Amino acid sequence: MVHVPWEAVALNLVYPHIAWSSAYVTAVVAVFGTTISPYLFFWQASQEVEEVKEDTTARPLRAAPHQAPFELERIRLDTYVGMAFSNVMALFIMVTAAATLNASGHTDIQTSAEAAEALRPLAGRFAFTLFALGIIGTGILALPVLAGSAAFALGETFRWPVGLARKAHAAKAFYGTIAIATGFGVLINLSPIDPVKALFWSAVVNGVVATPVMTMLMLLASRRSVMGQFALPPVLKTVGWLATLVMALASEAMFVTLLA
């Protein structure tokens, strides 16, 4: 529906135009923050613990190492497939926005209505309906992950009873956190805060917070006193520390350019 210069897209994927400016570097941190989001660490780990609790035949891998080959392969496949889908979708979202909004000079989106204009070549006068359905679907998908990961993180920090398999009366603080986080989300929608900028700056915050979280994760995952025989092998340890370094350098570059 939209003319896309695919040769230019392919070329810039390999040789991107890099600008040493606060806006550019901040956008890079935001992209990193939506890709390696700290809340996903808490969510995925907590869901694995939930599955162990729900399955009477499952046990923690340190106590049942014979279950490791199947479980680790399942986790690996789940992670790779999820990462592939999310990155492909993110790429096409950016390509579509570039070929519609950016190509027509719209580089500073202030409202959701302006963002919906990107869908006009596809949906015509139904662009806003299609955009609204997408936002609602995204919200339904994101709500349990965002609010749930916050509840898991707080619950595990303060040793509350946690878990979506628990009844509400058995995990009041856990479900209370989910309710409060959801309530804040509703209040933001009713406030004069620009939702597009709120999404952008929340991604920037995620990108900055990811560095210390990844550092702690790498330190813990590398210790045999914590992981036993499942401590990170050299390849994963190298890749993990490189990713942490890239996140740290991006955040540092953002602060340098903002203060310059």
Q: Give the overall form.
A: globular
* Content-based structural category: mainly alpha
Uncertain runs = none
The N- to C-terminal Cα distance equals 42 Å
**What is the share of helical residues?**
over 70%
The biggest sheet amounts to: none
H/E series, N to C?
Answer: HHHHHHHHHHH
- Mean residue pLDDT: 88
Number of helices: 11
* Oligomeric state of shown chains: single chain
Radius of gyration: 21 Å
Q: What's the β-strand tally? A: 0
State which percent range the strand residues make up.
Answer: under 5%
Describe what you observe in this structure:
The N and C termini lie far apart (42 Å). The chain has a domain at 132-193. It has 11 helices and no strands. By secondary structure, the chain is mainly α.
List the helices and strands and how they pair.
Elements: H1 6-14, H2 22-35, H3 38-54, H4 68-100, H5 112-116, H6 120-123, H7 127-157, H8 172-190, H9 195-222, H10 224-227, H11 234-259
Helix pairs in contact: 2-9, 2-11, 3-7, 7-8, 9-11
